[in-house]
Write the C-alpha cells for this entry.
Amino acid sequence: MGAKYEVRGNIAVVTLDNPPVNGLGYDTRREFAAGIEKAEGDPAIAAIVITGAGKAFSGGADIKEFGSPKAIAEPNLLTLIRQLDNCSKPVVAAVHTVCMGGGLELALGAHYRVAAPGANVALPEVKIGLIPGAGGTQRLPRVLGVETALNMIVSGEPVKSELLASLPGQKLFDQIITSDLLEGACGFAAAKAAEHAGGAKPLPRVRDMKVSHPNPDAYIQFARNMVKGMARNFPAPPKCVDAVEASLKMPFDAGMLAEREIFLALMLTPECKALRHAFFAERAASKIPDVSEDTPQRKVEKLAVIGAGTMGGGITMNFLNAGIPVTMLEMKQEALDRGVATIRKNYESQVRKGKLKQDKFEQRMSLLKTTLAYDDIKDADMVIEAVFEEMGVKEKVFKTLDEVMKPGAILASNTSTLDVDQIAGFTKRPQDVIGTHFFSPANVMKLLEVVRGKATAKDVLATVMALAKKIKKTAVVSGVCDGFIGNRMIEQYSRQAGFLLEEGCTPQQVDKAIEKWGMAMGPFRMGDLAGNDIGWAIRKRRYVEKPNLRYSKTADLLCELGRYGQKTSAGWYDYQAGKRDAIPSPLVVEMLERHRAELGIRPRKISDEEIVHRLVYALVNEGARIVEEGIASKASDLDIVYLTGYGFPLHRGGPMCYADTMGLFNVVQAMKKFAANPHDDAEFWKPAPLLARLAAEGKSFS
Ligand code: NAI
C-alpha cells in the first residue's frame, strides 16, 4: 500500500493509501513522490490534488516504522514537502477526517488547502515528548497566527477544520467544502490552474508568508510562563515556544534549522523515550500473543452485576456510560437502594459540575435495573461478580450462575486476591470464566486487569478486551497469581517502605521523596487512603503461608493501634474530620522510635535517591519475576499497569522502562548494595533470574 494516481480531466489526484490512517511510511512516501513527479511532468496536467483514502487525510508518521531506518529513508517527509513547495503546478490539499502531525505538515506544503467540515486537525507530537519536526512549528504560525498555532502545538489537541476556517485572517484553509470533497477540490484546483496559467501569478507558498505579532516579546514571555506551570517534568512544551519564537524572529530556513535542532535534542531525552514507550506500550497491551486479532467475539449487549457495593456500583456506571444496559443483583433491597443512590449521586455531581447533561444522565439511569432474583439476569450476555472477598461467598454465587445463566454467557469476577481458576472450578463451564479486576473508584480509574484463567476461552478473552475499549478502560492481561500484576508488585514496594521506616525514615520523608520523584502518592499516604487493615489481613495470611518471608512489623503495630487510615481519621498520619490532608503524627514517630530501640537499630539518615531506588527497584525485581513466569506476556504491560493504575509518573515511562533507562547493570549493582545492608533483606534483593540474565547480557526489558 502506498499512494494512488488518478487523472480527472486536467487534474491529477494523488491519494495517500496506507490504512488505517495513511501513515507516511516509506512505500507511501515513495509512491506519493512519484505521483507528484509524474503529474508535474505531464503537460496534460494543469494542477494536482493531494488527499487520503478511507478514514483520513493522514495521521502523520507511520508508527510501525518509528525508530527504524525506514522512518527517515529518502524520500523523507521534508523532501516531499519541498517537492510540493517547489512544484510548478498548483497543488491543492483536500483535507478530511484526520489531518495530524506529519499529515498536517504535508498539507502545509501545498499551495492551497480545502477541507471537509469535521476534520480533526492537530500537531500532537508534544504528546510523545517531541515538537513537530517537518516544518509544523514554522508553517502553522504563518497560516494561523502565532497564538493559535502555539496553542495547538503546545496542547497537541485536535481542532475541527470548520472552526479553524472561521478564524479571522486565517490562511490554513481556502475553502470548506460541504459537498463531495474530491469533486470540490478538483473544481477548486481547475480554477487555480486557470488563475496561475503561464505564470500569470506566482504560486503562494506558506514558507513565503510573514509571521507577525503586535507584541512578540511580551507574548512569548507570557507563553513561556504559562507553559512552565503546565509542563512540570516535560521538556517538550517549553521547546514548542522556542520553536514558534524562531518562526517569529528568524527567516524561514533558519527557523527550520532551529526546529530540527530542537527536535533532535528532544528525541534523546529520557522523557521523550518514556512517552514514546508509554504510547507504544498502551497499544501493545491490547495484543495477546496467542489470541489473534480476528478471534471471533461474543456479543455483549446486556450485562448483570452481582453486588451493588463500592465496586459493583462503579463497575455498573462504566457500562451505563457506554450505553449498555445493566441489571444489578443484591441479597437485600436496602443494599440495592444504597447502590442506586450512590450511582445517582455520582451522576448528579457530574451534572452540577457541568460535565454531564441532564438528558444524558436520565438516559443512563434508564438503562439501570435492579433485582433480588437470579431469574431476572439469566439472559445477560455477561455477568460481573463484585460480592464480598470470601471464597465461600464467591463459590455460592458462581454455582448459582452456572445453574441459571444462558449458555455462552461470560462469567467474570472482580476479585482482587482470590484464585480465578478455583472460582472457575465452581462451574461446569470454566472456559467462560474470567477475572475483570477493576480499580477503585471503578468509574474513574483507567486500568482494568483482565485475568486469564487456565481454562478461559480465547473468544472470551478477546471479547472482554474489546469490551474494555468500549468502556474506555486500558486493559492489561494478567495470568492467575496472588495479587495479579499490580498488587503483587506493590506488596514488595510496601515491604521495602517498611524496612525504610525501621532504618530511620519517617513516613513523610519516604512519601515526600517518592512524590518529588513523580509518584502521585507515596506508600504511606496510599496506605492511609486504601485502608491499612487490607495489607494487615494479607500479611496475616503470609505469616502462615510463608513464615520465612521478612516483613517490617511497623505496619502491624500501627494497625494494632486501630490506625487504619483516613477511615479512622488516623493512620500513618493524623486526619481532621472530613479532610484528607495528611498531618505528620507525633504518636507514629514515637511508635517508630520505640520499635527501632527494641530492634537495636540506630537510625541513620537515608538519602532521597536511596529511598526512590529501593522502592522502585522492589517493583522492578518482582516485575521481572512476573514476566519470567508468563503472568504478563511482556514487560511493557507492567508499565501500563503502573502508569494507569498506580499513579506512576508518565515521564518515567513505568517501572520497567525506568529500569531500562537506568541500565539493568546499574540496577543489579544497586540491588547488591542494598542486599549488603544488615537492616534490609538480602533475600529480597536477590535479582530475579530474568533481571540477572538481561543485566549480564547487557540487554534491557524492552
Ligand atoms: P463491598 O462490601 O462494598 O460490596 C460488596 C457487596 O456485595 C455488598 O453490597 C453486599 O451486600 C453484596 N453481596 C455480598 N454477598 C452477596 C451475594 N451472595 N449476592 C449478592 N450480593 C452480595 O465490597 P467491594 O469493595 O465493592 O468489593 C467487591 C469485590 O471487589 C471484592 O471481591 C473485592 O476484593 C473486589 N475489589 C475491591 C476493590 C476496592 O478497592 N474496594 C478494588 C478491586 C477489587
User: Anything to note?
Assistant: The first strand starts at residue 3 and ends at 8.
